[in-house]
Amino acid sequence: MAVTNLDLTRYTFYLTIFITSCFLLRALFARLANSSSRQPPSPPLSLPVIGHIYLLGSSLPKSFQTLARRYGPLMRIRMGASTYLVASDAAVAKEILKTHDAKFSSRFEMGPVQYSIYKQTGFMTAPYGPYYRFMKRLCLTRLFAGSQLDQFRHILKEEVERLVRSVSECSGEGRSCDLTGELTTLSNNIIFRMIMSKRYSKFVEEARELRRLVVEIMELGAKLGVSEVFGPLKWYDLFGHGRRLTEAMRRYDGVLEKVLRDYEENIDEGGESDLLEMLLESCGDGNAEVEVTRDHIKHFVFEMLMASIDTMSAALQWAMANLINHRAVFKKLRDEIESAVGPAKLVGEPDTQNLPYLHAVAKETLRLHTPTPLIFRECSRDCKVMGYDVKAGTRLLMNVYAIMRDPEAWRDPDAFVPERFLVNPSEGGSQLDQIETRGRDFSYLPFGGGRRGCIGASHASMVVQVVVGALTQCFDWEVNGGQKVDINVGSGFSGAMASPLVCRPITHFDPFK
Length: 513
Fold this sequence. Notes:
With 513 residues, the chain is an alpha+beta fold. The chain is 49% helix and 8% strand. It is globular, with a radius of gyration of 25 Å. The N and C termini lie far apart (91 Å).
């Protein structure tokens, strides 16, 4: 027995020496490989297996912002087995999105992708190639151009009226309103109706179930911590969140498959095709410009629904939360709406051009609480960024959250001050604060920039303006007997609110009487 214990002790000792030597050699080879090139700075202590994960908190954008203040606006961070560059100011963003835009035009998948049932079929995460360009062209021509613009305005008007009626019921009954749920429903309905405009009314129940499943999938994804996504727990799923996420995706797949089958069996040959019909016709077509599979279609619909919750709905919630917490801003916005629109009409899309303060509120909301705080890019060719060598295949995280809260670019960067976006300096703005919102001013990037910027930016802005305008015009809001809304940010990559937005509406103006 003594001999056995001695052998086991020796074995353990040699194994420890071997593993330690491997890590030391790996670090030595990495240092030698980098000695001939100039690399961005990095926190000095990268631990075996986990890298710099021990430095990161529950909110990655905030954690990266804190590290950037110490290690600079372009730094290297190792999370698990992968190394990322993190960009955190406007100068770096300009060099990447303008000077080297072509080299950083591809994206990569981030998050718990190991649990996804759709592998390498995404549109938003697709490499900048034929499939991405094909889908982008379809979106621009079938969602955001031509006759679809009038359809969009019609859909927006109907959904805003439905929202106001629903909130009015809560007000009439004296009960609180789950604005998170209401705004998620509105955002999803708009996306669904734009994608399948010809027969949306037939799939209302399926749309509701798909929305519920997408919310469940996002909640399960948010429960996976940084170590479960990047670190040593990545492949073990100790708490079962990954398994449940996959199961929810399979249920989503089953519901959407039924919708697609019905859609195919009843395609109307007359009239203009909607986006879903065009995708189904491309599926399996050997003469099509690019190969579109059923998984491509399902993943695309999933991405659109997820974006409507994670970006559009989140932006609406943040706007209302800030207005409820800043009563003076709320009053100023309502006064503008009542003056420009009048006392007897619900604010609508045509009115927004005469509401500069509403524009300023929307822009300030997107600056302070951007729904996409991290932009993911991948370098396709070797280049130099800010004098540092960047190799092809390097993954980049652009911390838009930090860029739009940079005290070098913004006065009182953490304060909600819509006046900074007013054109007239006498109203509290300044020439420095008149920010270009289309990705050409690199200190303001709520919709990204370059050739991979958000293609639906103008439509998303319009939804925020019209919905926020209507909820401000029609209702006063109370939160738990006069308390303020909790504006803590959720965990992970998202910029969504940590807690649901629940408050009691009090009718100020009923547009239907």
